Amino acid sequence: MTHLSFEQFKSKAKELLEKFTGKPLSTKDKISIPMQEMPTQEPLERIKNMSEVALGYSPEQAKLEALRCLECKNLPCIKGCPVQINIPGFIKAIADGDNKLAIDIIKRNSLLPAVCGRVCPQETQCQELCTIGKSLKDVNQAVSIGRLERFVADWERDNHLMKAPEVKPETHKKVAVIGSGPAGITVAADVRREGHSVTIFEAFHKPGGVLIYGIPEFRLPKKIVEIEIETLKKMGVEIKTNFVIGRTKTLPELLEKDKFDAIFIGTGAGLPKFLEIEGENAIGVFSANEYLTRSNLMRAYDREHADTPIVRSHKVAVLGGGNVAMDAARTALRLGAQEVHLIYRRTEVEMPARVEEVAHAKEEGVQFHFLENAKRIISDDYGCVKAIECLKYQLGEPDSSGRRRPIAIKGSEFLFEVDTVIVAVGNESNPLIKQTTPDLKTNEWGNIIADANGKTSMDRVFAGGDIVIGAATVILAMGQGRIAAKSINELLSSK
Amino acid sequence: MNTIIENKQLSENVFQITLEAPMIAESRKPGQFILLQVHEDGERIPLTIADVDIKAGTITLIVQVAGKTTHLLSQLKSGESIFYVVGPLGNPTHIDYFGRVICIGGGIGTAPLYPIAKALKEKGNYLITILGARTKNLFILEDKMKAVSDEFIICTDDGSYGQKGLVTQPLKELCEKTPKPDLVVAIGPAIMMKFCAETTRPFHIKTLVSLNTIMVDGTGMCGGCRVSVGGKAQFVCVDGPEFDGHLVDFQNMMQRLSAYKKQEELKYHECKLKNIR
Predict the structure, then answer these.
(1) A-B Cβ pairs (cutoff 8 Å, strict)
(2) What is the pLDDT of residue A494?
(3) Would you say domain B100-257 falls under CATH 3.10.420.10?
(4) Which of B43, B88, B228 comes nearest A247 by C-beta?
(5) CA B61, CA B4: separation in Å to the nearest integer?
(6) Where residue B276 falls among pLDDT bands split at 50, 70, 90?
(7) Rounded to whole angstroms, what are the CA distances from A407 to A404, A412, B140, B213, B242?
(8) Is B247 part of the contact surface with chain A (CB cutoff 8 Å)?
(9) A227/A483 Cα distance (integer angstroms)
């Protein structure tokens, strides 16, 4: 596939727009409009920088893409959205040239459209149910809802039209939000809007949670997150960084000593899983969390300025097949690795990573190895990784997740020389709050148990996001935050 | 925030830094540590808390200069401040009445050891302290440790002070005597903790060690601090920092400590060349 520039996409869209504007479009017309590709930085160029890969639509591309929407009466796309955005409504506004209306419609339901437009897995949510995609028999041909969401969010920010939501008069009730990731940000905004005072406690020195430490700059520019955090501050939300709940203060202390009227726990899934194989503690084996945190939060990729070191790799193996594995693999390329191999024990079809991320990783030169998995890690005399021993797999019957179970093929061991191994096989729940809050009920995996309204086993304590549902997505965490915030607001208004 | 109250040079490479950190001072318990970042482009490093003053809202850190970050710390003057300090982190030491306890401090390991020794003494334990260092002028907190100890032994590698030899010699003698010690707490360089654990192993005396590994977040999120304990990976930040010394794979831990040695040396070298402070 030849790589088209932003300008080339733009002028092609402009030509087509002239053909389709000024007349009512039939369903057939709409289906005939080609799906607008996302302009990106050229692959071999972008692996030399950390800047965002996807460049965003031009107004022409956005309008043309918006014209593809059939405005289905039964609203299938909305059913796929965890926060029920009025998708056909905002897309129609873009088609009509009213970007302001479009962003206002989105913001009724979502607080972070510039983030979600970039990182939501639309192909398994709204876009999966899109009629256009279905009639073209390809989910990747659906209306590009996420790209349009990003377009209007960026349009609003670039035109300095972002406004902090209005805050009702002070109620003098205090809410603590633990963690400043997507769930915490949502709760803070929704609760603050009702006039309650909100304090966010964040363990790191920068707020934003996984949006800051986990997702790399090339997929989600940190500037965007910082602006969202600024909005919270403008609303009067107080953010206490370098404050570890469970250590600096415990949750019971927040309730009893500091007299918070309610608490929301959104601490995320912060405890990396390892494969528990031989040699996993060798030098050169990292959790994806560590590798990404060093690069993103501590800016170790900027070797000249940042003091935080990061490994200099030649040949990297990334173990896992999710979005975090893609982020780690693509970061490794940008940090100068000559070869990056992604090893996944099932096939590409079962891979949980977004199709777009996989495509980007492939374009950039990440080499994929399916139906293989590491069995042990071999190190040299100094304890540094020198190879991994892998096993070949085949797919058996579906397991409880519905995916076909990978079965190791006996005797298929082979050696693979690498100097770095990044383990990206998921996260478990962080133990800090659990350890210091005996009354808080958790399940066998350590996730906090919360009901459909976000209520935990403790009075006035709510929870949501990955600490409740296990490692999931930004939008699901936001959706849970919304629900918990509603419960908190109800509790406080009845008191 | 995080303003330096006093920075005192204790020996050639060791500095005692007292800084404002009221919340940490209040909630910290013996055995816990902090993480700090000196400036915006700096790295996060874990440091043990040697002492606190709740009333004054200060904590005291003992810093041995080993690289760029510790060098920058050593250069700070009172009134200047650190980008941030976070903590207290790690699990507190289990303080109880055990009976006869031997506390072993090697080099600046005496800094984290002191609050533990003090708390153990307050619980009524019979406290025997062994402090070791390469040479005489490297001892820290000697008077404070002496004040909480029932017996007090000093060792130097070169014989310039106290007994000549390693801390493991008096440790072995104490293990052979009756009454046998009920608990040993050894904090110091990894190699010292390893040999203390080897010394007590044949006597089946529980030996606690406190590990200081490479960390990024200190809250369980990165796993960079993991060590093999009894064949299982444990995170020093949330499972430790104290572990049963008989179960720790010190060899692997020492290798992991050197993971960034080359890059660290380069940064330190650059920093000295440019005379950054």
Answers:
(1) 119
(2) 81
(3) no
(4) B88
(5) 11
(6) low
(7) 9, 12, 58, 37, 39
(8) no
(9) 24
- The full set of domains in chain A, from first to last, is 6-158 (1.10.1060.10), 174-270+429-494 (3.50.50.60), 273-426 (3.50.50.60)
Residues of B in contact with A377 (CB under 8 A): none
Q: Where are the domains of chain B?
A: 2-89, 100-257
- Does the distance separating the beta carbons of A274 and B23 come in below 8 Å? no
pLDDT tens, position by position, B12-64: 889 999 999 999 999 999 999 999 999 999 999 999 999 999 999 999 999 99
Q: Does B28 touch chain A (CB under 8 A)?
A: no
Q: Kindly report the pTM of this predicted structure.
A: 0.94
Distance CA A169, CA A396 (A): 60
pLDDT digits (tens, 9 = 90+) for A22-59: 788 999 999 999 999 999 999 999 999 999 999 999 99
ipTM, two decimals:
0.93
Dist CA A38 CA A27 (whole Å):
23
- Residues A229-267: pLDDT tens digits? 999 999 999 999 999 999 999 999 999 999 999 999 999
CB contact under 8 A, A248 and B267: no
- Distance (Å, rounded) from C-alpha A326 to C-alpha A318? 8
Q: For residues A40 and A46, is the Cβ–Cβ distance under 8 A?
A: yes
Beta bridge partners of B227: B234
d(CA A370, CA A355): 15
**Which CATH number among 3.40.50.300, 3.90.1310.10, 3.90.550.10, 2.40.30.10 corresponds to the domain B2-89?**
2.40.30.10
Contact of B207 with B244, CB cutoff 8 Å: yes
From chain B, the residues in CB contact with A431 under 8 A are 220, 238
Q: What is the pLDDT of residue B259?
A: 86
